[in-house]
Fold this sequence. Notes:
Strands 10-9-11-8-7-12-13 form a seven-stranded parallel β-sheet, with helices on both faces. The protein is flat and about 110 Å long. The longest helix is centred in the first third of the chain and has 27 residues, at 127-153. Strand 12, helix 28 and strand 13 form a beta-alpha-beta unit. Helix content is 50%, strand content 11%. The protein has 746 residues and is an alpha/beta fold.
Amino acid sequence: MLGLVAAEVCVAALIDQAYSLGTLTGFYEWAGDDPIIEAAFVIAAKLLAFGLVTALALRRAHESWRSLGHVGFSPLILAIAFLPIIAGTTIFLSEIDNLLRAYLPANLFNSWDFAPDLERLMSAPWVGPTLAVIIAPITEEVIFRGLILRGFLGRWKPRTAIIASAALFALMHFNPAQTPVALGLGLLLGWIYVRTRSLGLCMLGHAVNNSASYPLSVFPFQIQGFNAEADLASQAAIFHPWWFDVTGVGLFLGGLWLIHRFAPAAETWHVSPVLVPPLLGQAPSAHHNCLPPLLANTSSPMSAELVALVTSLAQRARAASLVLANAPTPSKNSALAQLADLIDASHDSLLVANALDLASPEAATLTPASRDRLTLNAARLAHLAQSVREVIALPDPVGAVLDDTTRPNGLRIRKVRVPIGVIGIIYESRPNVTVDCAILCLKSGNAAILRGGKECFHTNTALATLIQQALATAGLPADAVQLVPTTERAALTALLKLDTLIHCIIPRGGEGLIRFVAQNSTIPVIKHYKGVCFVYADAAADLTMAETITLNAKVTRPSACNSAEQLLVHRSIAEKFLPSVARALRAKNVELRCDPASAAILAAAPLNPISETPFPSPETRHPSPSVIPFVPATEADYSTEFLDYVIAIRVVDSLEQAIAIINRDSSSHSDAIVSADEPIARRFLAEVDSATVFWNASTRFNDGFEFGFGAEIGISTDRLHARGPMGLPELCSYKYLIEGSGQVRS
Length: 746
């Protein structure tokens, strides 16, 4: 709020100075006292300050303008309801004004109005109403409901958030005379925003309120104390008739009832601790305990309930997996096509769900990189739908014959690719994983149990609903993809013990999550611990290419696991290469954490090199340019996955040293060499022990889409049974089919 006020004051001052400059230069005559000119200045200042502050706030939060709330609303009667509300509010505030005039000294009451010229400004032809009825409602509702109230709702209960935002709304006017009106309007519009999620409805209500003062002069009746001249000789004569006040109360309550009655059902802003969906099929009875032995004896009632929940999900998934394993390819592709169309048609509802997650207390604690992974927008949703369609085009791996032999005794032995069965995917603030994993599991014939993080619960729920709808439409079991409907840690622990129902666990997220899963699971886990990825600029590197690859590998998406975290530079090129690449990285706000050798080079390199001239001026003959900023690296920095605008830099003496460092400090994920020397590069490719090794290419290419796999289930740093990007074949096992003609073993 203070930023908005400061920006508006600064912009208004600049506009005033620009106008004054125009009069001094003779372009036009001074008319700054004209209400039309004043109102036009205020409009320009409000719009420019509003746009600047809102854009900065959304950029800082990694959000889009859509996340502020709906512009539309339905049904139309919600808009009509504002007429009686504002009429009742106007009557009520008029009576408050009468009360203050009756009991406060006249000089005190008049001194409350800090903006006595406001009425003159609002009465300016066309620009006054434009400012009051269009500009102010749009700018103030975006700031106070879309930004401030929405932010409060992620941390406080709705009642507290509404009161706090209304108080700030009233204070922002800096005029005690307007405080009752602004406070009441702020409370009303705050309730409407929470109730309907419609920013457009709040703008309309604000506009109706601001326009209410204009028709008073043509009000057809003379009401004592309202629009009739008051008889100041009698104190009672300045108040409204009792029936007029009762009418105002009735109008106000009637309007509120209309909104309450016809607005869509309100949604909660906070995620419930446990949301249990109706379970399909029969629940376990007292005579048939179907819980696995490890989980049958649970002392806590909540633990028993959670165990029953996740066990039921796993049982249904196992049953669905047996159907899906034999589903024909056209049926699976039909479900995928349905899902892609549903995503395209559901942008609004998906973005609303994502906005709820972004406004949650859990999202408020995320790092910028994690918040970026959580955020959806129209472009990312379109990419998500496209990824589904790309999987349709991929060959179905199920049923592929890997080997076919006939033994001397006539037995025919075929090795055939089959689904793994039921796969559990555990992930954090990455809603795209919900779709990526579901579609790959579906195409490869596997059932999937998805367990997302608390910070993306609403988005995951909305996406899972679309997936199950697509499965049902295609005639496949909806239980083939299920979302665990709670984020309780006890449910995850129970899930990890269901080794008789779930065949594989794939965790995707931070190192802490993956270690927890690996240490607590009795089910085989395919791990992707972290992405500590290296770029090595060799002595024979093309320096321009090396700089381009380093920049791309680090800054295109620092939160990605294939982003470069470490830069190794051969000593023979360090003096020339390091200052250049460091300036390029700093231009992208990357923090440089340097070893002593690279620090010494950067300490002597100017941040902005000064070109030499034959005849320098006295001012530039002895320049003292600032050096490239860097931070001395710690030992931990050399093996850290930053997932942020940070990179660690070291100087090495040889290829052998570079390879040894990478094999020791990397996570065996994605590592690259930039070199024009083919024997050196071939040796690097052979000796670096990582899942993916690059020569003259960015580590950012370690991705299922870039490899032509379609969406990937993850990038495995394991050695069994999959390594690197996991596409459809990596989600399959195999079995042997033996055909004979009566052979028996002797």
